[in-house]
Amino acid sequence: MALILGIESSCDETAAALVTSDGRVLAHRLAGQEEAHRPFGGVVPELAARAHVEMAVPLVEAALADAGVTLADVDAIAATAGPGLIGGVMVGLMTGKALAHAAGKPLIAVNHLEGHALSPRLADRELAFPYLLLLVSGGHCQLLLVRGVGDYRRLATTIDDAAGEAFDKTAKLLGLGFPGGPAVERAAAKGDPRAVPLPRPLVGSGEPHFSFAGLKSAVLRARDAGIHRPEDIAASFQQAVVDCLVDRTRRAIAAIDDDVGALVVAGGVAANQAIRTALAALAESSGLAFAAPPLWLCTDNGAMIAWAGAERFGAGLIDDMEVPARARWPL
Ligand code: KG4
Ligand code: ZN
């Protein structure tokens, strides 16, 4: 059994966690930066990087204390090395490198997307490869065939905005606040999903790709028409996203010839209840098992990075100190 320290800093959450290779989360600490970014209605990279500098080491210390261990007890240190806002990624990766160097521990550079992709296996230790993953976050919207640790095949991606980006922009357009996804979900609960006719970009098309830019423009037009309640626009928007995700995922399921046993959803947008419910129904009607991590494990956190580190460590995948921080890093 190995003990892995994970550090996450690619966007606006600084996080540290201690996770064992048999899937126990001994500690996880997280510091959000919502207050810092709220006045700007979005994440300001420079502010994020400064906050990561302040929080990274204290969070690691707090996580170690929570778990009742010291750095000497840790078998490896995993840190997000990208993709993400480069200033923040550098802070977390350099923190990981410094700790690994000082304690004489192996370093594991984790792709943030791999953290999301493997997180369902931390939540459900029975979940076996291969599985079909819908990865929906603030920066990405992809369908991936997850065949094993480090073995991913991308089946589809967005041709413009990510799903989370669409939620965030819609929240901004409707004045619902920041962060956008949960704000839209709350407003949608008070609205009618059939009230506002909105497009379903790419629904029915042959390739399982995604597109959300047209939907965002339609939300803007609906708002400016001045006849709809924001709650009804939010509910109609959320329903349009659900319909797009379900249609595109159904298309991918139909095209897969690998022996996939489960449909899995992960990433921040996977915290959305309407999306989880619709995908669970799709899995059932497709004869697949369904898995979605608990909400805290969907949005960015340190445990998913520690877990991806544990999976990589188990596969003998460690990195040297030269490994770079990357703003872009496709899985
Ligand atoms: O995975 P994540 O925490 O960070 C990235 O890697 O991007 O995802 C953040 C995204 C944001 O766009 C946020 O608005 C969205 O996930 N999100 C949600 C919900 N909670 C977070 N979107 C819809 N419904 C939610 N409940
Ligand atoms: Zn993420």
TrEMBL record:
One of its GO terms (cellular component) is cytoplasm. Its cofactor is Fe(2+). Substrate binds at L135, V136, S137, G138, G139, D168, G181, E185, N272. It is found in: Cytoplasm. The keyword Metal-binding applies. Belongs to the KAE1 / TsaD family. This is tRNA N6-adenosine threonylcarbamoyltransferase. It comes from Rhizorhabdus wittichii (strain DSM 6014 / CCUG 31198 / JCM 15750 / NBRC 105917 / EY 4224 / RW1).
